[in-house]
Amino acid sequence: MDAFGPEQAATYDERFSKLSAINSLLHLVIQSQFAHLPDNAHILIAGAGTGADVRHLAPLFPSWHFTLADPADAMLEIAWQHANQEGFADRCTFHAGYVSSLPETQFDAATSLLVSHFLNEEEDRTAYYRSIAERLQPSAPLFEAALCGNRYDTIFETEMEVWLGLMNLAGMTDEGGQNYRQSFGTLFATHDPSEVEKMIGAAKFGRPVQCFQAGLIRGWITHRL
Ligand SMILES: C[S@@+](CC[C@H](N)C(=O)[O-])C[C@H]1O[C@@H](n2cnc3c(N)ncnc32)[C@H](O)[C@@H]1O
């Protein structure tokens, strides 16, 4: 996708660095939720981008293997560079494509961070979750986080103000903020949290439990049925 071409990939890690506390907390929740996995666990990283969560987990769990799947070559290239420089590339498989094009390996866990909000249609978003479920063993956890705002809800304006306040700290201009506001329902899905939970549940996962929120980013833990 164009939003994640070479130019965007090169600046992705820096772009939101002032909001790194949000990413750090996401990664801590994943670390705690996955801590019980076996030493030889194999983790699916759906929409891996530049691999921020793998960079957090790989040094903590030195025998885990990671499969990073992403349709954007340029993002995966940066993920490979990080893995190479930080010494865990030999524990990573890089798959330049959608999760649905991966073999149905029985992964022990999966993450999907800031990916599913790009799927505006309920059918596509549910199919994405199903493509992850089909590659997990029964009971395996999925940690899913996405931008989540229903522009038709009366609280949306206030939620958006809070979020744009944070984006301002990350350097977003007022004009950028206006464009961003318009993106819900076009670039980003405008599914209500309860709708997202239903879609996850419809895709062979147990009832998702929301265990993270920072502005418009919500995170859920769920398990493959
Ligand atoms: C905002 S980035 C998030 C990257 C990373 N997960 C993180 O936490 O920084 C979104 C990533 O999702 C990827 N992506 C978009 N649509 C996707 C899809 N349908 N399946 C898998 N990945 C997708 C993009 O190429 C991009 O690398």
TrEMBL record:
InterPro entries according to UniProt: Methyltransf_25, SAM-dependent_MTases_sf
SUPFAM superfamilies named in the record: S-adenosyl-L-methionine-dependent methyltransferases
Pfam families: Methyltransf_25
Domain Methyltransferase: 43-138
The protein's name in its UniProt record: Methyltransferase domain-containing protein
Organism per entry: Hyphomonas pacifica
